[in-house]
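hiii so um. not sure if this is the right channel but i have a protein structure encoded as tokens and i wanna go backwards to a sequence. like what aa goes where. can anyone help
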């Protein structure tokens, strides 16, 4: 306000100051900001304080169907203002009558822009007329209007801070009947992103809540209301909290505010602690960071298996620190129109800055942040342009704006390394599968509102669900509830009977891959082109890991290190001939005996992979056989599993014995394959 008064009050009241110095006073001021921030109200207040004539021009009212009438209306407005000087001409929604001429398709808009430029240039320097414009889209205004001599100054009427919100609340509640428990200072602290219009709507909604409580004792058919009822009505603090639950900031009307908390997330205590230090502390204790001269981190990357609560964690931290939350699905940003995807990214970041403190959450980040140049068939490089815009917005984030960026992905290996540099998504947090204690807490969180039978042992369920993700455990609870509802029993005993029908969504192979991601990211902040998976920790039990060594005294270099680089499905090979697959295994065995590499088989639910390893202990999947239970009979499935049980080479120390056993198995497999081929031939004949 002080800047506006200086630019308006001095030229209108004391023009001799500018004449003495020999400069021209400013002619125009452009106010821009989100809708409802008070741009029109500020212009009226300035005119009223200075006793100036106020002439309001609404942009759409200038437009006319008749040729030349729009320009004539604009000229009349400026002539009227000069006659009643000192005066202020206020053009509301100026972007509707002065858009960029190169982007308009009609001649009327171009003529109006030209007329407005001529009128502003024709204003006498000492005519005591100030032109003020207001818009929430400053970048859509014609650039010729934004130069010196026309709209000299541009003032951002942003979202009010805590002190400003408190002053606005006091203005809107000065005529309201408030209860003694209403704490406006506390309310203003937790309504981030609210502009003046939002605060007025909040006060109105709180008053309506007070009226709704008295509707049961009010007779609407009577013309008068009992004075005792009117005297008992007062807006309380509870009414304001109820109104807050039904209202959002105008900038975030299309977004859904999260209502989950730490209680909804079982386990992950270390992750919660790190999120509190990264996101919650800068919001609640900014003075501590200023004291130590430290800039808080701006970005966090969640990575890990699907279904482990990455999205839920982002919502919970936003709710815990009372920050606004904007969720962006990666594929939603990509469009077929050139340049529109980049504009969408800019608008999202601009909205987050206006709603600060805000948590900006990018789900499925790998869909828009893959390594540049790796997109095949990307017409025009749209994905690369979106990533470049994303990096630019992250680098241009104002340090004073408390906007935190959280990305979530289950494919960290394809994320562009530039996104993980310091100052961007520099905090890398691995979200693992829950351990037994975490699974127990997840069961408790999922079932805290459900009636449980006394014989339900959640600790036993947590023990039996080794390798299950949080989403899998939630599915177990939902299935048990469905069975209980189906049988119309208000207890939870069915969960013990039916929990085992749920299938894991994350395989053992995926678990090892994500553990390798986490181990690699601790050593390097980015991914190179030759990414390799690390080994399992030493001492892992062989029962839980098929690649663990059976020889405890072997040297660490002799233990095979499994590195899964690529899985190649041999489904088509299996359907053509089993001989091809078995011959591949036989060849690998002879190469193993010669010392070129080791190999082993690994079965993962409905996929069998052949992992070949070189002399250094690193290798790749040489092939695999996949089957679907509904597409194959039991014989091929049993064949794969039976062959797998005989051919698992886990240590160089058992080479001879393992090769002999494997050759014996291969001979039997060849007999089975030959018999199957003869059976097919007889059936065909």
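sure thing!! here u go:
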């Amino acid at each position: 306000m002080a800047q506006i008064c200086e630019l308006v009050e001095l030229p209108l009241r004391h023009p001799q100051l500018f004449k003495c110095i020999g400069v021209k006073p400013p002619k125009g001021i452009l106010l821009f900001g989100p809708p409802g921030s008070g741009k029109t109200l500020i212009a009226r207040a300035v005119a009223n304080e200075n006793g100036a004539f106020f002439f309001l021009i609404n942009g759409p009212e200038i437009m006319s169907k008749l040729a030349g009438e729009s320009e004539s209306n604009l000229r009349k407005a400026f002539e009227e203002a000069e006659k009643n000087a000192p005066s202020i001409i206020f053009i509301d929604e100026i972007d509707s009558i002065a858009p960029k001429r190169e982007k308009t398709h009609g001649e009327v808009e171009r003529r109006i822009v030209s007329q407005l430029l001529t009128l502003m240039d024709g204003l006498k320097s000492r005519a005591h007329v100030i032109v003020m414009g207001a818009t929430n889209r400053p970048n859509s205004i014609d650039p010729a209007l934004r130069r010196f001599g026309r709209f000299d100054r541009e003032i951002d009427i942003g979202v009010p801070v805590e002190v400003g919100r408190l002053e606005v609340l006091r203005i809107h509640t000065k005529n309201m009947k408030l209860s003694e428990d209403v704490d406006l200072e506390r309310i203003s602290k937790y309504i981030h992103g609210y502009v003046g219009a939002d605060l007025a709507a909040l006060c109105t909604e709180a008053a309506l809540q007070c009226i709704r409580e008295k509707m049961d004792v009010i007779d609407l058919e009577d013309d008068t209301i009992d004075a005792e009822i009117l005297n008992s009505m007062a807006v309380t603090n509870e009414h304001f909290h109820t109104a807050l639950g039904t209202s959002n900031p105008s900038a975030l009307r299309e977004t859904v505010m999260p209502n989950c908390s730490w209680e909804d997330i079982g386990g992950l205590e270390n992750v919660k602690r790190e999120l509190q230090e990264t996101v919650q502390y800068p919001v609640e204790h900014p003075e501590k960071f200023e004291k130590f001269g430290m800039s808080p981190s701006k970005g966090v990357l969640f990575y890990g298996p699907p279904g482990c609560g990455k999205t839920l964690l982002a919502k919970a931290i936003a709710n815990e620190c009372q920050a606004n939350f904007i969720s962006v699905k990666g594929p939603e940003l990509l469009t077929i129109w050139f340049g529109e995807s980049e504009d969408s990214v800019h608008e999202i970041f601009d909205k987050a800055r206006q709603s600060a403190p805000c948590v900006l959450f990018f789900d499925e980040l790998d869909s828009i942040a893959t390594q540049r140049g790796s997109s095949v068939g990307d017409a025009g490089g749209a994905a690369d342009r979106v990533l470049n815009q994303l990096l630019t917005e992250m680098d241009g984030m104002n340090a004073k704006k408390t906007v935190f960026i959280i990305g979530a992905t289950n494919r960290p290996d394809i994320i562009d390394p530039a996104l993980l540099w310091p100052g961007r998504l520099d905090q890398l947090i691995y979200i693992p599968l829950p351990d037994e204690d975490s699974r127990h807490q997840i069961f408790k969180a999922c079932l805290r509102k459900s009636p449980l039978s006394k014989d339900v042992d959640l600790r036993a369920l947590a023990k039996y669900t080794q390798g299950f993700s949080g989403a899998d455990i939630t599915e177990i609870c939902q299935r048990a509830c469905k069975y209980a509802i189906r049988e119309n029993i208000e207890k939870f005993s069915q969960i013990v009977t039916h929990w085992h029908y749920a299938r894991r969504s994350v395989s053992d192979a995926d678990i090892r891959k994500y553990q390798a991601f986490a181990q690699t990211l601790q050593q390097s902040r980015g991914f190179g082109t030759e990414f390799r998976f690390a080994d399992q920790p030493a001492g892992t039990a062989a029962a839980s890991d098929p690649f663990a060594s059976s020889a405890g005294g072997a040297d660490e270099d002799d233990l095979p290190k499994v590195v899964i680089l690529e899985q190649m499905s041999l489904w088509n090979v299996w359907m053509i001939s089993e001989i091809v697959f078995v011959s591949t295994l036989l060849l690998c065995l002879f190469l193993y005996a010669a010392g070129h590499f080791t190999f082993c088989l690994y079965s993962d639910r409905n996929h069998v992979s052949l992992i070949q390893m070189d002399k250094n202990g690193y290798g790749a999947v040489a092939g695999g056989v996949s089957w679907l239970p509904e597409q194959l009979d039991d014989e091929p499935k049993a064949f794969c599993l039976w062959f797998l049980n005989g051919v698992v080479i886990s240590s160089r120390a058992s080479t001879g014995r393992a090769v002999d056993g494997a050759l014996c198995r291969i001979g039997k497999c060849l007999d089975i394959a030959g018999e199957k081929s003869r059976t097919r031939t007889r059936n065909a004949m």
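oh and The longest helix spans residues 655-684.
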